Amino acid sequence: MINMKKIVTVATTLLFCLGTQSVLAQSQQRDHQRDHERSAMQELNLSDSQKEAMQAIREQAKEGRSMFRGERDEALELMRQSKQSGTWDGTTARSLVESRIINRQAHQLANAQNRQAVFAVLTAEQQAKFNTNQAARYAVRDPLKREQKRLKQLLRMANKVDATEAQLAQLTTIHNDATTAMQTYHNTMMTQKMAERSLIQAAEFDTQAWQTLQEEFAPTAIEIGVLRAKTKFDIQQVFNAKQQKKWRKMKQRMDKKDRKEKGKKGREAAPK
Questions:
Q1: What integer pLDDT is reported at residue 146 of this predicted model?
Q2: Which end of the chain has fewer beta carbons closer than 10 Å to its terminal beta carbon, N or C?
């Protein structure tokens, strides 16, 4: 069983999800969160000195991320091997999820500290406006509509690998069941999200409070991680070997395109 005292944080994707997030949209959720924050910052009429300070913080964070890439890639490789085995092993999956959470703890702590540093660059008026803008964005979100969109994306991808009507029905059931199961964690995740935001927006970052928060959320984070792994596994098993090969190639192309677009957005968002 995982040693809770060793946990400093959990995956960013778990911290920001709203409770009905599709397992296929983890990276998209993380990217959207980053894009929304950058967009909100651009609405604050930042001074040149503020832009320079934020850029310096982001550059430092970028350099630091390479320190944790090895642990992250190792966890992802272990999860990939598990999915390709063709047999679901819940015990092994749980162990992998726990290991991945531990391996990412230092990275996520650094990420939270960097976000706090960026927020501290803002004036009190800018901070208030930032929170108002963020609240307005959350208010217009429709979780059901978002899940319907993600299901359409899943089925559209399945059609590209020549999925049958029976397979599409299976995928729909898997997606809907996962959405329902994820909803049971909604209140815990929202409480975690609000507490995390308070720490990030404090004048001084409280590392001990952050550690305590992650320890409290860890059991839920593990259950969410196992659910996501099982859902990914179930989706893959719907396809035959030929379809799986085509699916993996399609995902590789999509990931490559996403990385290219992220790089472009990062350059465009950089302060001038």
A1: 87
A2: C
First vs last C-alpha separation in the chain: 49
Report the pLDDT value the prediction gives residue 2, as an integer from 0 to 100: 40
Q: pLDDT of 60-98, one tens digit each? A: 777 666 555 555 555 555 556 555 667 888 888 898 888
- The domains of the chain are located at 4-269
pTM, two decimals, is 0.73
